[in-house]
Amino acid sequence: MYDVFITKASTYLPNEPVANDEMETYLGLINDVPSKAKSLILRNNKITTRYYAIDREGNPTHTNAQLTAKAIEGLFDEHFKKEDMKLLSVGTTSPDQIQPSHASMVHGELNIGKSIEVNTATGLCNSGMNALNYGFLSVKAGVQENAVCAGSERMSAWMTADKFNHEAENLKLLEERPIVAFKREFLRWMLSDGAGSFLLENKPRADSTSLKIEFIDFYSYAHEIEACMYAGCDKQEDGSLKSWADYPSDEWLKQSIFAIKQDTKILDKYILVKGAESLRSSFDKHNLDPEKIDHVLAHISSGYFKDGLREEFAKKGMDFPPEKWFYNLSEVGNIGAGSIFIALEELMNSGTLKKGEKVLLCVPESGRFAYSCALLTVC
């Protein structure tokens, strides 16, 4: 078994940052009416700018595969050329197509000129960590001598007004208020586009900061809790999900079946509590001392959860002081599977990390409440 190190990190954020008052210029107005929910959601999530892979007319400027490839290209240098890549492992919530796999499309964009092993992790925010874990285990076991891992999202194209206008028109026909349900509109004001990537190798770099991966742990609570965040389906009264394939095709647009939705009631009830429970399990499993942690990077979907998360961790005996937490949510937005990559890249390249420090990564996924965490040591 080999030690595994993140030897380089790279981020790609498309176009210019989009301010709060510009969002509907890019995403459009549902039913030609400004959103009444937008200001409340933005006030709570504390996001001030985000990035979109679309222009002001809603036209695409990048595919998800292109965003991911551009982030990965930043890993290539005199020490590691693209033809040196052995494994490509990527995760996303928002692939450009159902098939082929996202990793295959990214491989094609990179124009490496040779066959490599590819792996795609699907799901929600944890898909990036799942992709990282696949690369970590492959290098650790000696199956591959290096791995490129990435997390990315291109949610803007899912959130343009034209994706919701049919539902609003249908509500008019039913003589109801033509206002799209809050669970569908909520995420329009939360999500951002971008990609982050890591190079994993079995030796640290002598001339720059490397991070040794000590462990990556995963926890799912789907045996206890129904789905909270979902797309390509709709939730029934009993909490089950009805697949898009079981709806007549004319209902797909009328009910915004493919829109990504959030059940905010169960989100508030479980997301922080189960996050603290899962992290406590890892600290017990690895016999970790919370006081030995120097930096805490927690992916949160909204600034609304920042104080609550710290409080829930403290209740479980993991009281990390405010100065140890690192966030960039307000500047880059919620990039789902890419968020933890993008945050760690910023910290890793900030010049503030010191040899021997411990960096904790925490990633929640509200899909059906799954969590991951990882411990890194600065080399």
Question: Which residues form runs of ≥5 with pLDDT under 50?
Answer: none
SS summary, helix count: 12
Q: How would you write the strand order of the largest sheet?
A: 5-4-6-7-1-8-15-14-13
Q: What characteristic shape results from the CA principal axes?
A: globular
| SSE pattern, N- to C-terminal | EEHHEHEHEHEHHEEEEEHEHEHHHEE
CATH classification, class level of the largest domain: Alpha Beta
Terminal Cα separation, in Å? 19 Å
Largest sheet: 9 strands, mixed
Q: How many domains, as an integer?
A: 2
Beta-strand content estimate? 15-25%
Output the CATH homologous superfamily of the largest domain: Thiolase/Chalcone synthase
Rg, alpha carbons:
21 Å
CATH-scheme architecture of the largest domain: 3-Layer(aba) Sandwich
What's the CATH topology label of the largest domain? Peroxisomal Thiolase, Chain A, domain 1
Question: Helix/strand/pairing class, anyone?
Answer: alpha+beta
Estimate the helix proportion, in percent: 25-40%
Mean pLDDT level: 94
Would you count the extended β strands for me? 15
- Quaternary state of this entry equals single chain
